[in-house]
From TrEMBL:
<dbReference type="InterPro" id="IPR022414">
    <property type="entry name" value="ATP-guanido_PTrfase_cat"/>
</dbReference>
<dbReference type="GO" id="GO:0004111">
    <property type="term" value="F:creatine kinase activity"/>
</dbReference>
<comment type="similarity">
    <text>Belongs to the ATP:guanido phosphotransferase family.</text>
</comment>
<keyword id="KW-0418">Kinase</keyword>
<dbReference type="GO" id="GO:0005524">
    <property type="term" value="F:ATP binding"/>
</dbReference>
<keyword id="KW-0067">ATP-binding</keyword>
<dbReference type="InterPro" id="IPR023660">
    <property type="entry name" value="Arg_Kinase"/>
</dbReference>
<keyword id="KW-0021">Allosteric enzyme</keyword>
<dbReference type="InterPro" id="IPR000749">
    <property type="entry name" value="ATP-guanido_PTrfase"/>
</dbReference>
<feature type="binding site">
    <location>
        <begin position="27"/>
        <end position="31"/>
    </location>
    <ligand>
        <name>ATP</name>
    </ligand>
</feature>
<dbReference type="InterPro" id="IPR014746">
    <property type="entry name" value="Gln_synth/guanido_kin_cat_dom"/>
</dbReference>
<feature type="binding site">
    <location>
        <position position="126"/>
    </location>
    <ligand>
        <name>ATP</name>
    </ligand>
</feature>
<comment type="function">
    <text>Catalyzes the specific phosphorylation of arginine residues in a large number of proteins. Is part of the bacterial stress response system. Protein arginine phosphorylation has a physiologically important role and is involved in the regulation of many critical cellular processes, such as protein homeostasis, motility, competence, and stringent and stress responses, by regulating gene expression and protein activity.</text>
</comment>
<feature type="binding site">
    <location>
        <begin position="177"/>
        <end position="181"/>
    </location>
    <ligand>
        <name>ATP</name>
    </ligand>
</feature>
<dbReference type="GO" id="GO:0005615">
    <property type="term" value="C:extracellular space"/>
</dbReference>
<dbReference type="InterPro" id="IPR022415">
    <property type="entry name" value="ATP-guanido_PTrfase_AS"/>
</dbReference>
<feature type="domain" description="Phosphagen kinase C-terminal">
    <location>
        <begin position="24"/>
        <end position="255"/>
    </location>
</feature>
Length: 355
């Protein structure tokens, strides 16, 4: 397989679409937690019960379509190799927890990978809907339609006073997590993120790394999401998040302008040094690669680097993860071998831009 073929197959089609504010907001996501009314929740259910949950999806939803998302495929964790599951985690289509559920875990994934319904994770159902750029309202609208479609065949665990019932009390109510993935390099460079994160937390929102709870903000990528699901409507949660995200977008753009005005030569040096490392390294670890990719993406957004696509951060942040590197190599790799393969793939990817 050529690198170009590998990129085309590895990157979710929706990630390539142009969208509002996608120089800073890479993606918007709505996640809904739901459970079957008649079955114990996964944390206490036996294997036979969880198989019944899986049968509902196999019988009623697999190979069906909703809107533009055709051919929803049921992917069972028991049928995947460890590297294949790791790739799905790296693409945010399943969680690490679901990947570990070897017997009854599964996911219903749309052809364009915009929709992913995780089955028998912490809850019976975790609906995920992605949109490129800053499109929270569009994501919510589509997720709600998907939710209604599933409810035609499934009776949800619901309480008139508490809302949707979930395994974790923090998800009770709407059962919704709304989030955006943001690239905020200028706020990191100017050391403003250290003050911004506590302020965001006080507003009932949380700031995490690229892979959610407990993960590091690699490549200056931050996931901003709601913490409160009870006592607010889905629309109110989205509006609160939108308000904060709009302020972050403005602050990031202002920080970029100040850097260009006050420290232009230092910023250019930082960006082009990172480009040089990516273009010439023979060995590179994931943390250094993420940092350099963030710098290059900033250079592209500021017009300093003109011959590289701005989708390169989206692509290479995924393609250089351990699962994808091993998939591309078609074999297991040691950490040292992955560092060599990562450097090679990045150089090849940059060379494609010059062709």
């Amino acid at each position: 397989m050529s690198l170009q073929q590998f990129i085309n197959e590895a990157i979710s089609p929706w990630l390539k679409e142009e969208a509002e504010d996608n120089d800073i907001v890479l993606s918007s996501r709505i996640r809904l937690a739901r459970n079957f009314k008649e079955y114990p929740f996964p944390i206490v259910a036996d294997e036979k019960t969880l198989e019944k949950v899986l049968d509902v999806f196999a019988d009623h939803f697999a190979e069906h379509s909703l809107g533009k998302n055709a051919n929803l495929e049921l992917v069972r964790m028991s049928q995947l190799e460890p590297i294949e599951k790791r790739v799905l985690v790296e693409k945010h289509l399943i969680s690490p927890s679901l990947a570990e559920n070897q017997k009854t875990g599964a996911a219903l994934i749309s052809e364009d990978e915009q929709v992913s319904v995780m089955i028998n994770e912490e809850d019976h159902i975790r609906i995920q809907l992605y949109q490129p750029g800053f499109q929270l309202e569009g994501a919510l609208d589509y997720a709600s339609k998907l939710d209604d479609w599933l409810e035609e065949k499934i009776s949800y665990a619901f309480d008139e006073n508490r809302g949707y019932l979930t395994s974790c009390p923090t998800n009770v109510g709407t059962g919704m997590r709304a989030s955006v993935m943001m690239h905020l390099p200028a706020l990191v460079i100017t050391q403003q993120m250290n003050q911004i994160i506590p302020a965001i937390n006080q507003l009932g929102l949380v700031v995490r790394g690229i892979y959610g709870e407990g993960s590091e903000a690699l490549g200056n990528l931050f996931q901003i999401s709601n913490q409160i699901t009870l006592g607010k409507s889905e629309e109110d949660i989205v509006e609160d998040l939108k308000s904060v995200v709009k302020q972050l977008i403005e602050q990031e753009r202002n920080a970029r302008q100040r850097l260009m005005k006050n420290s232009a030569i230092q910023l250019e040096d930082k960006i082009f040094r990172s480009y040089g490392i990516l273009a010439n390294s023979r060995i590179i670890q994931s943390k250094e690669a993420s940092k350099c990719l963030s710098d290059v993406r900033l250079g592209i957004d500021l017009g300093l680097i003109q011959n590289v696509s701005k989708t390169i951060l989206n692509e290479l942040m995924i393609l250089t993860q351990p699962g994808f590197l091993q998939q591309y190599a078609k074999k297991g790799l040691t950490p040292e071998e992955r560092d060599v393969k990562r450097a090679t793939l990045i150089r090849e990817r940059l060379n494609l831009e010059q062709e």
